[in-house]
Amino acid sequence: MMNKVFSAEQLDIKDPLRDKAQAFSLPANTVYLDGNSLGPLPKAAKQQADDVVNEQWGKGLITSWNKHQWIHLPQIVGDKIGGLIGAKSGQVICCDSISINLFKVLSAALKMHPSRKVIATTRDNFPTDIYMVQGLLDLLGSDYSIRYVDEACIGSQLTDDIAVLMLTQVNFRSGNKLDMQSITEQAHQKGILTLWDLAHSAGAFPVSLDACNVDFAVGCTYKYLNGGPGAPAFIYVAKRHQAQYQQPLSGWMGHSSPFSFSPDYAGDNSVKQNLCGTPGIIGMSILDAALDVFEDVSLKAIDEKSKKLQAFFIAEAKRAGLLEKFSIVSPNIDNRGSQLAFAHDHAYAICQAWIAEGVIADFRAPNILRIGFAPLYLSFVDIEKAVASLTKIMNEKRYENDEFQQRQSVT
Amino acid sequence: MMNKVFSAEQLDIKDPLRDKAQAFSLPANTVYLDGNSLGPLPKAAKQQADDVVNEQWGKGLITSWNKHQWIHLPQIVGDKIGGLIGAKSGQVICCDSISINLFKVLSAALKMHPSRKVIATTRDNFPTDIYMVQGLLDLLGSDYSIRYVDEACIGSQLTDDIAVLMLTQVNFRSGNKLDMQSITEQAHQKGILTLWDLAHSAGAFPVSLDACNVDFAVGCTYKYLNGGPGAPAFIYVAKRHQAQYQQPLSGWMGHSSPFSFSPDYAGDNSVKQNLCGTPGIIGMSILDAALDVFEDVSLKAIDEKSKKLQAFFIAEAKRAGLLEKFSIVSPNIDNRGSQLAFAHDHAYAICQAWIAEGVIADFRAPNILRIGFAPLYLSFVDIEKAVASLTKIMNEKRYENDEFQQRQSVT
Lengths: 411, 411
Known about the structure:
Helices cover 33% and strands 14% of the residues of chain A. Chain A has helices at residues 8-14, 43-57, 64-67, 73-84, 98-112, 127-140, 180-189, 281-290, 299-319, 347-356, 380-395, and strands spanning 24-25, 31-32, 41-42, 92-94, 118-122, 145-149, 162-168, 193-197, 216-219, 234-237, 327-328, 339-343, 359-360, 362-364, 368-372. Chains A and B meet through α2, α3, α5, α6 and α8 of A and α2, α3, α5, α6 and α8 of B.
């Protein structure tokens, strides 16, 4: 067994983000390795929930639409998110879910490219992304089609019949991270519009939408952005496209003048056109406060710590002999997001047994144990505990216990 | 001046719903006549907000999807709403916004009627309803069209080229209430599917979707259902249509097996197919608790009290000479919802001056003072105060003050 160069405690002392965990309300005796499914509760969000419910709604009632700026919240929150994904003000808006937002952007992109009838994506994209294309194409009829490109060599498969290339930057299972800059550039060379899904990117590492010349992006806020369960998603529309952008979910909140109640839809000539119905204010307001956790940290620092946590996890797992039992299906550290995926035939039961020990990770069908690294609240001591607990489970073969094998609807 | 038959105090004593106001957290010195825009905070919702944020999210983290039934919340809440709109279990689901839900249902309805290309609605429908049709038709191309029917004689304008008739039961401005039973029957005689928007109906009076043989309905929950600002909406799909129902916003939560992550969309053969992305759990959980206010009251009792409150308002206004200053644009009491609309050139400023006096109503462009009657928390003494205050404003012409004339973004 190798000796550690630094102990977990030493690494925590050297960690510039070590105090950030105090910004979260975390349950005791839990190591949370599932912040890539649902981030934990920031203390500021807890306070905001109280304020938006009891003061703003309870006391302000309808007048809070003005008094507490509810009407501007989608833009305020959008710009905050923009700051975390390399987008200058006025290009990001907070609204609806990723799925619905994909429908808006895909429709708008096809309209901007009337002579092209193909949407390209990877077969291993997150299912809802693909389902939304299928739903849209079914509505549009047989002129249009979806084409699957191989994640490993996207550039070589780009042809000039493709209207829009829809990619998730970080694969939800393996963590494989695509090169946004190079792929966007290659797509543009063929006149293809790009749509990036940042579900596993936003809040995890630096993203540079403007600098990469990305056309459109969507993302969710309940993973690394800690916005709460089912918190509203976002859309990025590059400034240069906003004048001709037209999306079909043309609800009143995206109208250029919603309260004039005019009989005809006239979409706002800005990213605001992506608003549709009345936004869920309570969830969005909680998200607004949750984002303030990022105010005094850089995504670069978060990314650096994530890489260290991952390296430490692997080193510890190796020392414990775990790497002979699991196969790592994630690419190397420079080509993956803030997660590690291990394949094991008993991944589901292992995950359940781990949860029973207070270490929460998650399972992704068919056989992936998925481990998320969220540097804002994870310490090196947490990782050490998690590996120790996994080692015990594997050595004792606890995953063979019946209680851990019963499937629940969600993990 | 006529004498009152009963004083406001006497009417309150006789009111069987008089204690129900205690279920709400209402600000002091406020008469709230805008529950038809945003219902006030139920105390149970306040408690639930605390629980879902701090316990379920904060402590349960990702495991709450199972432990606290988050995954089933759209159906649980849907069935609760169903009980208030005359829908048997399994036909209502809580999701997204009315606007987005209209898009789903309209698309599905057109698909069920491939030979018909017309969506009919009233020109004075709530704008977002019309905008959503416009957005959908723009996507579908020139084969399809929207046709406006006159609210006053819908039956005679129904022809067999209409695929779906989309109506809002209660007009958002005037309060005019359509005869759901008779119109649905007339539509069916022409083979037309019906889609009812219950924004100003649900929670205000008895609605009988099943008994009226309605095909589809949508509605919001932040008005008379008191679910909170931007609380999620709902969809009703009659059982008989669920097998062939196919809506295009085909996100993973509407898949028959969302966590199998299969590459192809296979919509659930139930109302659940209307789910799209991950639902906003915090807002929906608060709504879930808010709906419990209705557990021990009947919609019939609510409707009866609303009619009495409205009659009392009008009688008081008449006594005060107000009816010579305003014209009532609402139909008579049997043909309107739980609201009264008065037209006045200075309606906006009057509304602002009223708010300054602690009476919150709302303004609807171009010249409507809209007064909502929500019997769960309004007393006859409230109405008496509101009329007294309005009388003062009118007699003193306070609406001429500059401070009340400045428009804000929302009212």
